[in-house]
Amino acid sequence: MDLRPLTELLARYAVSWPAESALAARFAAFVSSRADVLLRTCPPGHVTASAWIIDAAGGRALLTHHRKLGRWLQLGGHVDGEEHVERAALREAQEESGMQRFVLRRWTDTLVPLDLDVHVIPARGSEPEHLHWDVRFWLQAEPGQELLISEESNDLRWFTPDELRAATQEESVLRLLRKTLALLR
Questions:
Q1: Which of 51, 54, 77, 61 is nearest to 151 (CA)?
Q2: Per DSSP, what are the bridge partners of residue 35?
Q3: What is the pLDDT of residues 30-63, one digit of tens each?
Q4: Is residue 124 predicted with pLDDT exceeding 90?
Q5: Helix or strand or coil: residue 71?
Q6: Domain that holds residue 78
Q7: How far apart are CA 152 and CA 149, in angstroms?
Q8: Environment class of 77 (CB within 10 Å of its CB; exposed 0-12, middle 13-18, buried 19+)
Q9: Cβ within 8 Å of residue 82, ≥6 positions away
């Protein structure tokens, strides 16, 4: 697997979000430590990709009520070997929302993730506790698409910023909201 596209994304992230350069460096160290970081079979944890989806008008964010975790979260999942993790985020957005048409939002000349997050996934069945090294992208849904709830979700819902703040205290989701609002100003 070619990890250069991910390494380059992480380097651009460190430049675009200088207050988070230590987190970007931690990600880069993990990515360079193993050849299998893009596979869910990587024992200590693996890279995942998420989609922070904003509606066509730019006023609401789409969250899923995650079936396994029982919380309102952004859409996303395993990259399963995809070297261009933004493609995995788009695939997950399509699979989990039922929508097919998105614009990958950029605020710089080159693609930069909106956010990075490392979080613990609890042990479940035969799967031990492990880390998800989540690379998060900002997508905007094109208008006129219907939502279709996948088997991974209890519900899908569009939230205004105030509704989102009332629905979750999940810091990583609130951080995505804050970053998006700052970039839209």
A1: 77
A2: none
A3: 999 999 999 999 989 999 999 999 999 999 999 9
A4: no
A5: coil
A6: 4-184
A7: 8
A8: buried
A9: 38, 49, 88, 91
Element (H, E) at 174: helix 171-184
Residues 6+ apart with CB under 8 A from 182: none
Distances (CA, A) of 23 to 110, 114, 120: 20, 13, 15
Please provide residue 157's backbone torsions phi and psi, each rounded to the nearest 5 degrees: -155, 145
Q: Which two tokens stand for residue 104?
A: 């990958």
pLDDT for the residue 68: 79
First to last CA, the chain: 38
Q: CA-to-CA distance for 113 and 103, rounded, in angstroms?
A: 14
- How far is the C-alpha of 17 from the C-alpha of 174, rounded, in Å? 17
Q: List C-alpha distances in Å: 38 to 72, 127, 130, 174.
A: 25, 17, 14, 26
CATH number of the CATH domain containing 112: 3.90.79.10
- If one counts the domains in the chain, the total is 1
